[in-house]
Design goal:
Blueprint (H helix, E strand, L loop, with lengths): L16 H18 L6 H28 L4 H12 L1 H12 L2 H4 L4 H16 L3 H19 L8 H23 L13 H15 L4 H64 L9 H11 L1 H7 L4 E9 L7 E10 L6 E8 L15 H16 L10 E5 L9 E5 L14 H20 L15 H4 L1 H11 L4 H4 L2 H4 L2 H14 L5 E3 L8 E6 L2 E9 L6 E3 L3 H10 L2 H7 L3 H13 L8 H29 L7 H24 L3 H7 L2
Antiparallel strand pairs: 1-2, 2-3, 3-5, 4-5, 6-9, 7-8
Protein name: CHK kinase-like domain-containing protein
Organism: Panagrolaimus sp. JU765
Length: 659
């Protein structure tokens, strides 16, 4: 077979890929049949059809090669295959012919007839051949009838010689017609035939020495040819088995190539998908990760994207950003990689019901970008790793923050933070404040002033909810004028600490339940702090600002009041440890006063936050009323504590801003 037709470099029919490919499908379908449930009739019939079609396709190819080629080596490959496997082929054709649903679709009889014609033409005796065989059989029988007394006569000698010559002709016919596994005389075995040869050789020994040698040689050659042919048949089977393995490898490679192509197309399509309702694509996020995170580049830089799961998170908790969790799955990796894409938006500004311009959200976003880029590297606190940030460019770029996904949970505001959780957060605040106090003021001083004024903007919102919330409570409604005075809130959060000679620090600005991530164990939130997130409210302020916000919103009045008995000493002790040899610039009395200033402000502000959170509680929650009541009680307790402060040490503030 020419090399160009035999890329597998296999001899014989095994090198014919067209035959092998069809035969491979037949063998595979035959194997598949064994694994099909007998009750699945449709699948069984379908597989039987495929099995039959491809077996016949392989046979048809062999038949075609035999019909189209002149005598030669290439043709003999196909003829030998039919000769060696003729019993199997007959049985297989008969098997397919007896499958009812195949009889109506496939004309198997035509293949049987074609096969029969080829076998008869090439491997069965012609009339002339049969004549020679009959002559030999008759002559040998005559020789056997001579008795001992007649063996010395001339007739016997002539009969033996005639039988010897006919035997040689007979053997040549058997070789030409390929009778190697059985003889044309079905009642004669090869052992019988060998005995005939031995008998003739012995009889010719005293009659014709030369003819004796010729008979002996003819039989030995036939025996050798028979063994050689049997070896060729076995080798051919081995080559076909090898060719089938190669065919299987090609199928696997084709499937892998097809799969790779499909995966490439899918990955390309996935990469073009937008993240939620942002302008950013999956490809954009992946490119950012490859560029900015060495760990991601090493593990996933060359991996092909299999899938990406995008989920908007923080619904009902964040008002100034769209936050998306993106989980990337890669084809050859069992591990996933999750990130957070945070995109600023003005979509929710209406919730504040105050005159905040459209650029307000952009400035908050810039504040958070500046924190992660310039302030976070100074800190050693629990904050997420940030891969990339970009500012809002009006009418050009949405802006974004790409950060690690912290796999934890936030505690619902209707739950109460416990003492261990509160202490962990205070530890983080002490570390945060110490790093800021020890840092060069040029890095942060004066950069985060604008956010201080946000609280003043909320006076209109607080006023609306205050009137509704405390209607009928005369002892508290007297503060209705105070809560709508922006100067009151401005003083508490922007000026009061200066009046106390308290050195400002940077504050988170919005430290409450929704921005604190806790580790989860068996579905339960633990006391292990994972991260403090959402730093867009970063501002300069009192070192007690974040603690006040935390205790005012995150726990019950009972726990808050207990914490107030020890937390200032605890904070000062932690701060001193972090400051080292540098003296702590605060006294306990200063911190207490700053803290209770915060209670005055956050007490009223929580009315707004609390009401919004009440509205977010699922109405189908069986504990909806209990959770709403918890928030109502928390609001009332804060205002009542503020009322006591206004009646005592901070009476002057009420008189200045509330009358």
């Amino acid at each position: 077979m020419p090399i160009m037709d035999n890329p597998d470099r296999l001899t014989g029919i095994a090198g014919d890929r067209k035959f092998i490919n069809a035969f491979y499908v037949y063998r595979k379908s035959k194997k598949d049949l064994k694994n099909i449930d007998n009750e699945d009739e449709t699948e069984r019939e379908k597989t039987e059809y495929i099995c039959c079609i491809y077996y016949l396709k392989a046979l048809h190819h062999v038949f075609s090669k035999i019909h189209e080629r002149s005598d030669g080596e290439d043709k003999s490959f196909y003829l030998d295959y039919l000769r060696w496997n003729q019993n199997i082929i007959r049985a297989k054709l008969n098997y397919f012919k007896n499958i009812p649903h195949l009889q109506e679709m496939i004309r198997i009889t035509e293949f049987e007839n074609d096969f029969k014609e080829i076998i008869e033409e090439n491997f069965q005796l012609t009339t002339e051949d049969k004549g020679i065989v009959n002559q030999y059989v008759h002559a040998y029988e005559c020789v056997q009838r001579f008795n001992e007394n007649e063996k010395s006569g001339k007739k016997y000698k002539l009969a033996v010689q005639h039988s010897g010559r006919l035997f040689i002709n007979y053997v040549n016919i058997l070789k030409i017609r390929g009778y190697t596994r059985e003889l044309d005389r079905h009642d004669v075995t090869f052992e019988d035939f060998r005995n005939e040869a031995k008998d003739l050789v012995k009889r010719l020994e005293d009659v014709d020495v030369h003819l004796k040698k010729d008979v002996q040689k003819a039989f030995e050659l036939f025996k050798d040819y028979r063994e050689f042919d049997d070896g060729c048949a076995k080798t051919n089977d081995e080559l076909i088995a090898r060719a089938l393995k190669l065919a299987h490898s090609r199928v696997i490679r084709r499937e892998e190539l097809k799969k790779t192509q499909e995966e490439t197309v899918k990955a390309l399509q996935l990469s073009k998908n937008k993240i939620g309702n942002t302008n950013f694509t999956v490809k954009f996020v992946l490119d950012c990760l490859k560029k900015n995170d060495k760990n991601f580049q090493e593990k996933f830089g060359n991996e092909k994207l299999k899938n990406v799961k995008i989920k908007k998170i923080g619904v009902g908790e964040g008002f100034l950003s769209h936050v998306y969790r993106c989980v990337f799955c890669f084809i050859d990796c069992t591990k996933e990689f999750a990130v957070i894409l945070k995109v600023p938006t003005s979509e929710y500004l209406d919730v504040f019901e105050c005159s905040l311009d459209d650029d307000f959200y952009a400035r908050l976003h810039q504040c958070e970008c500046d924190f992660y880029n310039d302030i976070a590297p100074l800190l050693d606190i629990a904050i997420p790793k940030v891969y990339d940030t970009y500012p809002v460019v009006k009418n050009k770029h949405q802006g974004y923050i790409l950060m690690e996904y912290v796999e934890g949970a936030v505690q619902k505001i209707s739950s109460n933070m416990n003492l261990n959780q509160i202490k962990q957060i205070v530890q983080q605040l002490a570390k945060f404040h110490a790093r800021i106090l020890l840092a060069d003021e040029k890095i942060w001083k004066g950069r985060f002033i604008e956010n201080q004024y946000i609280i003043g903007f909320l006076s209109k919102v607080v006023e609306k909810y205050f009137v509704t919330f405390f209607a009928g409570k005369d002892n508290l409604t007297k503060y209705s004028k105070l809560v709508k005075n922006p100067e009151f809130f401005h003083y508490l959060f922007c000026q009061s600490h200066f009046d106390l000679n308290v050195k400002p620090v940077l504050c988170h600005g919005d430290l409450w339940n929704s921005n604190i991530m806790w580790k989860v164990d068996n579905g339960q939130i633990t006391d292990e702090l994972l991260a403090i997130v959402d730093w867009q409210g970063l501002m300069e302020g009192s070192p007690m600002m974040d603690l006040t916000r935390l205790l005012a919103t995150g726990t019950s009045a009972k726990i808050r009041r207990h914490v107030e008995t020890f937390i200032f000493d605890y904070y000062l002790e932690l701060l001193a440890q972090e400051m080292g040899e540098v003296k702590v610039p605060y006294t306990k009395e200063q911190l207490e006063t700053c803290y209770f200033h915060g209670i005055l402000g956050y007490g009223f502000k929580f009315i707004f936050t609390g009401v919004l959170c009440m509205e977010e509680i699922d109405p189908n929650d069986p504990e909806v009323e209990l959770k709403r009541q918890i928030l109502k009680d928390r609001c009332t307790d804060l205002i009542e504590d503020a009322d006591k402060l206004f009646s005592g040490p901070f009476k002057h503030l009420y008189e200045k801003y509330g009358q």
